[in-house]
Structures are given as C-alpha cells and as structure tokens.
Amino acid sequence: MASYPSLAPFVLKRPWLRNMLTPIASWYSNAAGYRQLGLRADDLIVEENENVIKALKRLPPKEAYDRVYRLRRAFQCSTAHQLLPKAEWTKPEEDVPYLQPLIDQITAEEKEKHALDSMTIIKSH
C-alpha cells in the first residue's frame, strides 16, 4: 500500500463524485505529459526505494524489457526536445498499473514477516 492516505475509496463509493472527478483526472493525466513520451504512470515510480527494486526484479522479462525501452525512448525524446508522433502516445486504456501491484505485494509480505518475527509466545501453565 502507499504511504499516504488515499481518497480513492471515498470517491469510488459515490457515483456523483466519481462522475464529477473523472474528467478532471483524465485532463490531469494528459496534462502531465508522460503519455506523450510513451510512458506509463508506473514508469514514473522512483527506483530508489528497496521495495521498488525488489518489484522490478519480479517483473516478467518481457515487461522489464518494455519498461526499459519506454524509458530509453522517453529519454531520447526529452534530450531532442521532441514528442513522439501522436500514434505512438500511450493510450489511457494501455496505462494500467504493472509495478504498483508488485510493490503492494512486497509491502504486505514485509509486514507479515515483521509481524511473525516480532511475535511473542506466551506459555500457559
């Protein structure tokens, strides 16, 4: 799970609020500009965290290769001060989380390991 509180469950339970905020969220995602460089949202996750490094090691080989390709292509575009052709932009339906579920799984495993390691056994007489 993320280390910050999320309003997503609150928003998703209220259809009127979800309908109101969905266009704003779509606009923000497009305005961020990462899709115009061919990136996905999970490509922007900082790799300096230990859990992210572990999650990257758990990625399937094809997904890891695609991620490196997207990052290199975006870096090349950024260096040349150009955007990709519109046909190569990441479409909203392609921008699905692929790394965050692994990070959440690793975090849950670490919490479980910590809970088991810190467990105290109380002997009853």
The total beta strand count reads 0
Report mean pLDDT, rounded to a whole number: 91
Rg is: 19 Å
Low-confidence runs: none
Helix content: 55-70%
Largest sheet data: none
Helical run tally: 5
Approximately what portion of the residues adopt beta-strand conformation? Answer: under 5%
The SS-based structural class is mainly alpha
Order of helices and strands: HHHHH
User: How widely separated are the two ends?
Assistant: 40 Å
Shape: flat
Textual characterization of the structure:
By secondary structure, the chain is an all-alpha fold. 55% of the residues lie in helices and 0% in strands. It has five helices and no strands. α3 crosses α5. It is flat and about 75 Å long. The mean pLDDT is 91.
In short:
By secondary structure, the protein is mostly helical. It has 5 helices and no strands.
Key features of this structure:
about 120 residues; mainly alpha; about 55% helix; flat
Secondary-structure map with pairings?
Elements: H1 8-12, H2 15-32, H3 50-58, H4 61-79, H5 100-117
Helix pairs in contact: 3-5
